[in-house]
Amino acid sequence: MILKVSLIVVLLVICSCVVEAISRNHNQNPNHNNINKNGSSLAAIKFPDYPSFNDVSSSGDDCSFSNSEQLGHSGPTMTSGEETDEESEAFPAQKPHQNLVKFHLKHRSGSKDAEPKQSVVDFTLSDLTRIQNLHRRVIEKKNQNTISRLQKSQKEQPKQSYKPVVAAPAASRTTSPVSGQLVATLESGVSLGSGEYFMDVFVGTPPKHFSLILDTGSDLNWIQCVPCIACFEQSGPYYDPKDSSSFRNISCHDPRCQLVSAPDPPKPCKAENQSCPYFYWYGDGSNTTGDFALETFTVNLTTPNGTSELKHVENVMFGCGHWNRGLFHGAAGLLGLGKGPLSFASQMQSLYGQSFSYCLVDRNSNASVSSKLIFGEDKELLSHPNLNFTSFGGGKDGSVDTFYYVQIKSVMVDDEVLKIPEETWHLSSEGAGGTIIDSGTTLTYFAEPAYEIIKEAFVRKIKGYQLVEGLPPLKPCYNVSGIEKMELPDFGILFADEAVWNFPVENYFIWIDPEVVCLAILGNPRSALSIIGNYQQQNFHILYDMKKSRLGYAPMKCADV
């Protein structure tokens, strides 16, 4: 899960020569084979490839553009796509759904050369570092969240609507909701050494293809931009604003500029055409700095009658990043799906309603199958006989408005409700604790003492398998060589509203090598967040229903969605 922290750290990015800092970081870790080229000290995430259990040009160095055009619309707009260039042809036809937007998430198998034991250490260390920084960000409260900034700006300036505006197929334009299904492709980052999921997005006019990380734990959408003064390596060319006729800078005088954090120290806003600079810091130490702008995103819309057509969502707020650093594993940037107003999910609400969902395929699935991201009401999902709901939590003074909080009561191992102190799961008024569901964190992490109680319950109930030691940080681990069918305890989460989420064994045990499996759950400090990660969400259709403030989950073979 990714989240911005203190603005002061931008000095480390812009000053003291980024390239030299990256080089020093690499030299200080000579024995770390998985440090990526951008210089992060976190190891790359690699997953073992074993079968499942079930067989613009810038004017100077101030990150501002030479022109900042007046905005013609109050938010994104959508037009019909008539392009026939190669980029547009990449959109596949989809099954008919009404009032939906569906995106595809392709799965790629991991490298067979990966060392599984070291891989598990790598991605868990990356997760833990990220969580520690998230906790620090919540407690320190040095940076206001974007909701607070918006509320402050609304008191000082006339109220303005940032709803997306949809351009109709004809010359006329409308702000009415679009009737149809938006479709995108999500791709597992396994082959890139990542525990995250990637989405194919077409940006600009004419549309160019970029692969962005999908993250429900952050809000800002951003792409690496030319000139890339300090950027990480990505697959394909950088986005160049000069090549797009639809790119527009957001002025530093525009109230929307208040939605983003400025670099520290902030630059005085004087000139009328001065762009809006932003700085965004994530929980794992990654960050991006650049210009806040508007652009057209091209998506595939499946209409109610089942036909597929391209639509251009205009005036999408995004960051054009010129200084970027972190573990993004070949992606061109990030697509935020958090609850804040900047996220792609929030910007799409006036077009497709207040819900979105995704279904993540098993990481060991064939590379030809894909996961899905859907915007709008999915009637097939809502009619699923095994669809369950739990209410979203949070809403307290200390909660972070980006996060999707849920309220856990306890967990169950083999139908035994474990005796975990109730306060373990509570979100304090200072923002400590609580539980969130997140697509950007790989495994599931429970605050202490919950984790120790869960781990002890599994050790107590698992019989007949040899306990394997010396494989930190995951525990317990078992040797299952020669066993045709494993029998492991059931596992489920009991929520405060009595909803229950039961998981298949492949969602909470992970293969370390062909003979060893480990519990895919780790612990956090008592005051830290508990996180339900994407490994536990595989082959569940997850629904984020903001209108009714609830999380839905239904077991499903995601390759068939």
TrEMBL record:
SUPFAM superfamilies referenced in this protein's UniProt entry, alphabetically: Acid proteases
Organism for this UniProt entry: Glycine max (Soybean)
Biased composition (Low complexity): 58-68
Domain Peptidase A1 intervals: 197-554
Pfam families: TAXi_C, TAXi_N
GO molecular function: aspartic-type endopeptidase activity
Biological process (GO), any one: proteolysis
Protein known as: Peptidase A1 domain-containing protein
Signal peptide: 1-21
The keyword Zinc-finger is annotated on this UniProt entry: no
Region (Disordered): 58-96, 142-162
Sorted UniProt keywords: Aspartyl protease, Glycoprotein, Hydrolase, Protease, Signal
Active site: D215, D438
Transmembrane region(s): none
PROSITE patterns linked to this entry: ASP_PROTEASE (PS00141), PEPTIDASE_A1 (PS51767), PROKAR_LIPOPROTEIN (PS51257)
